[in-house]
Amino acid sequence: MQKLYNLYMENIEIENLVLENQIAFDFGDLEEKEESLIFTDNLIKPLNHDYVKDEVLFVAVRAYNDEVAKNLPNLKICGKKMVDWVLLAGSCCEQLVIEDCEDILEKIRAIKTDKKYIAVFYSDTPLFDKTSFFKVMDYFASKSMNFLQLSRGFIVKNEFLKNSPNFISSATGGNEVPSLLRCDSSSVLSYIYQVLNERIVDYHIRNGVSIFGKSTVFIDADVEIDSGVIIYPNNVLQGESVISAGTILESGNIIDNSVVLNDCQIKGTMIKNSKISAGSIIEFEGKILSEAR
């Protein structure tokens, strides 16, 4: 899948839209961090980004112009819809979700806001994260740009947007940002799922969870796991499940919207909408445990 992504990225033609008072640049100069900043309360935040919170309106555009988004509008990747992943990138900002249309720039122009900047991104780019957002905003602000066209979105100064109607007709093309990879096929969707799941699994490993065979462990974004939990291969943790300290999840479990209290040992079980008492040992060998107390 990595080879597929590399081939995809190599074939992208990068076009820079250069307008008056705009400085063109190469996004290749921006180093990508490994941290996704999905879990903004736990990971280290970048410094000196207060202006982003105070001065940016973050707009997510619901994209329905490709087969994946059109046929699966409620599709969830690792427990979240694609638009929700994009909104996490700008979670520190005032946010707005709008529907896509033919003249998206004119629709943005009609938004009433006193924010200095308007940042617009499309919902079909779920790999876009807070690190990438801050880097783009830093460059835009530090170079005193008025308008920056991206492959799946743009950033514009509000004053420039309101007072420069003639620029709209030429606002096409854009700088390519790797994290703005568009989900427009089943192969890209599979790659995106793999990347997001790896980010989530790595996050829990950094927080003291032992995960063996991490490529076979699938964890939704809203699952909470205490430090010290041990997870063996072939486990699926979904919804808003909570796995408490001292628990060992042996192979073959599916745990969905459930709470597993301390020091449990579970193997080969599907647990849904349940609460498992502390110290429980469950080996149902593929059976379903639902709404247990």
Write the layout of secondary structure elements.
Elements: H1 2-10, H2 50-55, E1 56-62, H3 67-71, E2 76-77, E3 80-81, H4 82-89, E4 94-99, H5 104-109, E5 117-122, H6 130-142, E6 147-150, E7 153-157, H7 158-163, H8 186-206, E8 210-211, E9 217-219, E10 224-225, E11 230-231, E12 235-238, E13 242-243, E14 248-249, E15 253-256, E16 259-260, E17 265-267, E18 270-272, E19 275-276, E20 281-283, E21 288-290
Parallel strand pairs: 1-4, 1-5, 8-11, 9-12, 10-13, 11-14, 12-15, 13-16, 14-17, 15-18, 16-19, 17-20, 18-21
Antiparallel strand pairs: 2-3, 5-7, 6-7
Describe it:
The protein has 293 residues and is an alpha/beta fold. 25% of the residues lie in helices and 24% in strands. It has eight helices and 21 strands. The protein has helices at 2-10, 50-55, 67-71, 82-89, 104-109, 130-142, 158-163, 186-206; strands at 56-62, 76-77, 80-81, 94-99, 117-122, 147-150, 153-157, 210-211, 217-219, 224-225, 230-231, 235-238, 242-243, 248-249, 253-256, 259-260, 265-267, 270-272, 275-276, 281-283, 288-290. Strand 2 (76-77) and strand 3 form a beta hairpin. The longest helix is centred in the C-terminal third of the chain and has 21 residues, at 186-206. The chain is elongated and about 70 Å long.
Radius of gyration: 22 Å
Order of helices and strands: HHEHEEHEHEHEEHHEEEEEEEEEEEEEE
The residue ranges in which pLDDT falls below 50 over 5 or more consecutive positions are 1-47
| Tally of individual helices | 8
Q: How does the major sheet shape up?
A: 5 strands, mixed
Shape: elongated
Helix content: 25-40%
Arithmetic mean of pLDDT: 79
- From the 3D coordinates, which CATH architecture of the largest domain would you assign? Alpha-Beta Complex
